[in-house]
Amino acid sequence: MIDIRKKGYRAERDIVKKLNHFGFSSHRNLCSGAIEGFKGDIVFKFGSWKFCIESKHYKSMAIFRIWDKHKQSVRGQIPLLALKEDNNDTLICMHIDEFAQLMELLNESNEVKNDTATGIMLKRDKAGLEIIDELERMIKRYKSNLRL
Predict the structure, then answer these.
(1) Cα–Cα distance, 148 to 135 (Å, whole number)
(2) Would you say residue 41 lies in a domain?
(3) pTM
(4) Helix, strand, or coil here: 43?
(5) I need a labelling partner for 50 at 20 to 30 A (CA). Which of 63, 104, 115, 133 fits?
């Protein structure tokens, strides 16, 4: 019989290992977020951004059949999967390798911008300008929604 907690911990350790391999300082949270003040399974920082990952590892998920089909159809492009449920937000999913590469590109860009409204300070070039601006707008919308 498979111990589902060990299976989940193993998945979390694999994610942390991959993120650390790409140069991010990441770690598993105490008791996988079960302790007050330590929510989420994995945390890491990128500049002043703080990320919190909730990891799920199941034998199978229908979403992966959709992902595999989409991934095969977009050769030469980075596949993203938008997930939407009635009366809920839209989520964007991407492969961890492409995510790490995107973060690395943002980190390697050469122009510094400090947004005092969000507290974000990033290096960026013109290619990353639109992506970073959109991420900043998303963060502002998210923060304003939390105040409701």
Answers:
(1) 21
(2) yes
(3) 0.59
(4) strand
(5) 63
| Inside any domain, residue 77 | no
pLDDT tens across 27-47, in order? 888 766 566 666 788 888 777
| Alpha carbon 120 to chain centroid, angstroms | 17
Task: Report which of 28, 39, 46 is spatially closest to residue 100, judged by C-alpha positions.
Answer: 46
- Per residue in 115-148, pLDDT tens? 544 455 545 455 556 666 667 777 777 667 665 4
97 pLDDT more than 80: yes
Task: Look up residue 8 and give its two tokens.
Answer: 């989940």
Q: What angle do CA 66, 68, 70 make, to 5 degrees?
A: 65
Question: Do 124 and 132 touch, CB atoms closer than 8 A?
Answer: yes
Other residues' Cβ atoms within 10 Å of the Cβ of residue 48: 12
Q: Is 139 domain-assigned?
A: no
Helix (H, G, I), strand (E, B) or coil at 145: helix
- What is the DSSP annotation of 65-134? HHHHHHHHHTTTS--EEEEE-TTS-EEEEE-HHHHHHHHHHHHH--EEEEETTTTEEEEE-HHHHHHHHH
Lowest mean pLDDT among 27-31, 67-71, 84-88, 104-108: 104-108
